[in-house]
Design brief:
globular; 13 helices; 7 strands; 2 domains; Rossmann fold
């Protein structure tokens, strides 16, 4: 859910949010080329940039969008006022698409992770660039803030967040520091939490990519708190079931855990081994789609230079076979 520098992408939204890999996404769906109506599901509405570009691409395109964040609703209402019946919005988690009343889509699109709006809104607590309450909820009306999670979660949940989801190699130090800081107020604010993590992990080891030492732990806490990976695991097959034969499902991921789930899902639908330990015979596999590209589509140098947030974006797509 980050940004691109293509001219068409720049015009996608007046808010300053420019969607990543927009030209590549439009090429996958090829809106308007078939001549007939095209219904697309945007499972991660966010800033609405991809949705707007799809609606502007051809008059026969309509979009149904979902997003769990209530802050997305005003942006959706603006598009509704502009495009009328061609656009509908539902506030819901894309992980709950199994119960979604809409269906028969020619295309499904996901842009996982944070939107620029969420990351850059100080009081949401996603970023340690600002001193704010440690919240991190995708939907602030549901669940508990991240600060409460850090104060009360058992050690197993902290390990899962920091080690498994944050992929922090020095996770023992971080978990120990979090538990020791309970009740001190340090876990309540983003910058004091970041400082705690920096002190716990120490300097970046030689040869390792230099990122802020708190980045991985903040990511892991957010993923754990919002159930992001389980939502992807549920949302992908539910969306695929609502896809018309011949339709395209495309998903943009921003870190390896998301991309691994998408990659394995695409391989499963194409009847390929999902991973190195998948030893099933071909007769045991079901071929329901073809992978549009066996390798992920990445941003070009110009897009990365203009928008460093797009650097880690990976786009994968598959096309549902006519007989499924």
């Amino acid at each position: 859910m980050f940004s691109s520098t293509d001219d068409s992408a720049t015009a996608a939204t007046a808010s300053g949010h420019v969607p990543v890999l927009l030209a590549e996404t439009l090429e996958l769906f090829a809106p308007g080329t078939g001549g007939g109506p095209m219904r697309i599901l945007d499972g991660t509405f966010g800033g609405g940039g991809h949705t707007r570009a799809l609606l502007e691409s051809a008059e026969q395109v309509s979009v149904v969008a979902v997003d769990r964040d209530p802050a997305a609703k005003p942006r959706a209402e603006a598009l509704r006022a502009e495009f009328g019946e061609r656009f509908r919005f539902y506030q819901r988690n894309f992980g709950d698409l199994e119960d979604f009343e809409e269906g028969d889509f020619h295309g499904v699109f996901f842009d996982f992770g944070l939107s620029s709006f969420q990351l850059d809104t100080e009081d949401r607590g996603f970023s340690f660039r600002y001193d704010a309450p440690v919240d991190m909820r995708m939907n602030p009306d549901e669940g508990i803030p991240a600060a409460e999670f850090l104060e009360t979660a058992d050690e197993a949940a902290l390990v899962r967040a920091v080690r498994n989801y944050g992929e922090e190699s020095r996770w023992r130090r971080v978990v120990k520091a979090i538990i020791a800081a309970r009740g001190t107020g340090v876990l309540q604010r983003t910058q004091s939490l970041a400082e705690l993590i920096v002190e716990a992990v120490g300097p970046t080891p030689p040869g390792r990519k230099a990122v802020h030492p708190a980045t991985r732990t903040f990511q892991g806490i957010r993923v754990e708190l919002n159930g992001e990976l389980s939502a992807i695991e549920r949302g992908l097959p539910a969306a695929f079931d609502r896809l018309l034969p011949g339709g395209v499902l495309a998903a943009i991921s921003f870190h390896s855990l998301e991309d691994r789930i998408v990659k394995r899902f695409c391989r499963k639908m194409a009847g390929r081994p999902e991973h190195a330990r998948d030893n099933r015979t071909q007769d045991e596999r079901e071929v329901r789609a073809t992978m549009i590209s066996t390798r992920p589509i990445s941003p070009g140098e110009a897009e990365i230079a203009a928008n460093p947030r797009s650097r880690s974006a990976r786009l994968r797509a598959l096309q549902k076979l006519p007989q499924t």
